[in-house]
Amino acid sequence: MLQIDKSLIFDANIIIDFFTISKDFFKFINELSIEMFIADVTLLKVDQLNDTNAKELNISIIETPIDMLDESANRCKSGLAFDDYITFLLAKDNDLILVTNDKSLKIHAQSKSVDTLWGLEIILFLESNNKISKEKAKELFKKLRIVNNRITDDIEKEFLKLLYQRSSTIQKSG
Questions:
Q1: Could you tell me the residue range of the domain that residue 132 belongs to?
Q2: pTM for this predicted structure
Q3: Hey, how many other C-beta atoms are within 10 angstroms of the C-beta on 94?
């Protein structure tokens, strides 16, 4: 059973996907007293979020330190986008869970021992913590699949298996 015992930092893909299908994700995460963050450089990349609605949703904006900006500019050989590399570094330096739907970013972060979650795992987490029903989880999954064409039939099967298997729930610790 996976427990969320740290704060979350979101990449641009998650912000875009979650806003597209339901910004209630952020409200529900707040109700579970989990802190949420976004890098200032990521905020500049997404149209869906700004300073005002980030505050309303209780998403804190992390100002990227100058030395981190320099490191990111020099290390983009990693194959990651500039803002994704910043998000990775902030997760690593601040012991945050990086939430992404970007496979390359997830693989890179995990290779450096940074905790990660897929966006779909957030849906499972919300269901297992009684913030959404199984039916709502399925509905959100279907909407996410429409906006994210990388979600395959195999991923859908695994998601539904986990959704209906109580022993694999994801819960907030503490």
A1: 3-172
A2: 0.89
A3: 12
